[in-house]
Amino acid sequence: MSLESETGAGGKDAPLDRLRADPRRAAILTDVDGTLAPIVEQPEQAVVPARASELLEALNRDFGLVGCISGRQALEARRLVGVDGIAYAGNHGLELLMPGDEQPQLDPALAGQERSAAEFIAALDAAALASLGLRLEDKGPIQSLHWRGAADEHRAKARAHEIAAEAGRTKLEPRWGRKVLELRPIGGGGKDAAVAALLAADGVSAAIYAGDDRTDLDAFRRLRELRDEGELKSAVCVGVVSAEAPPELAEEADLLVDGPSGWLAMLEALAE
Ligand SMILES: [Mg+2]
What pTM, to 2 d.p., does this model score? Predict the structure, then answer.
């Protein structure tokens, strides 16, 4: 598949046409970091372009559902995107924050395990992690270790692999992202569960999802299952390409766009 091969002007954008034909019955779902917001050295420096936020707000007026699915905590994703009237699934689907909600709902499957990852991390040698450039991000039930920008990223990543193996022997599941290891309780959540939870709203029969990373593949697969089961008539999986993209992203996407600017252009086309 060539980049943006089917999305240009001139009638080749059939996948988008299916969404635009009946927007009230269509959902637009998007990952945040690396998809709406360009990847930056430190997650706290990420910025969603103002135009992307405007488009999501505008699309929310016409489409049945607009939602962001993020590895960040749901409230943090909403702060970053800056649009209150859309839905957010945070912590890779462990939290759901619907329009107007003040606090996210936690996945009930987490009951009793909310602190497992934090307790595991607390038992590690914090000074040793810091000296390797492994930075902790406390996301409540999920704890992340980032090594982007470490003096020796290979060494930091090697330590992250050891930690993942240790965590895997407890009741934690390691998940890998772009220069980040996430430790989460086993069971519940996942971007696949987030997609299913958001699309459970009545009346949506078509959906598009865009993502840039390995965890987004879970969302792709769930969308296809929903289509195969007849819950959706149309499902479009958009891979947001970067130099760090896992190879499976291009293999499993229906369409590819070049970075967050490519996805922004597709949102512009949907809003036309
Ligand atoms: Mg991402």
Answer: 0.83
Question: What's the rounded Cα separation, in Å, for the pair 171 and 149?
Answer: 29
214 C-alpha to ligand 1 centroid (Å)? 8
198 and 72 fall within a common domain: yes
Same domain, 72 and 162: no
Start-to-end Cα distance in the chain: 25
Ligand 1 centre and the CA of 18: distance in Å? 25
* Residue 263 CA, ligand 1 centroid: distance in Å: 12
Distance 69 CA to ligand 1 centre (A): 9
Residue 173: Cβ within 10 Å count: 19
CA distance 19 to 24: 9
Residues 244 and 124 grouped into a single domain: no
CB 173 within 8 A of CB 106: no
Domain with residue 219: its CATH number is: 3.40.50.1000
* pLDDT, tens digit (0-9, with 9 covering 90-100), for 77-116: 999 999 999 999 999 889 999 998 999 998 888 888 989 9
170 and 100, same domain (yes or no): no
Summarize the confidence of residues 123-146 as an average pLDDT. 94
- The CATH number covering residue 155 comes to 3.30.70.1020
Structural domain boundaries enclosing 171: 112-185
**Whole-number pLDDT of residue 186:** 87
Same domain, yes or no: 95 and 172: no
Q: Per residue in 194-236, pLDDT tens?
A: 999 999 876 899 999 999 999 999 999 999 999 999 999 999 9
Q: Could you tell me the distance, in angstroms and rounded to a whole number, from the CA of residue 35 to the centre of ligand 1?
A: 6
User: Which region holds residue 149: left if phi is over 0, alpha if psi is between -120 and 50, else beta?
Assistant: left
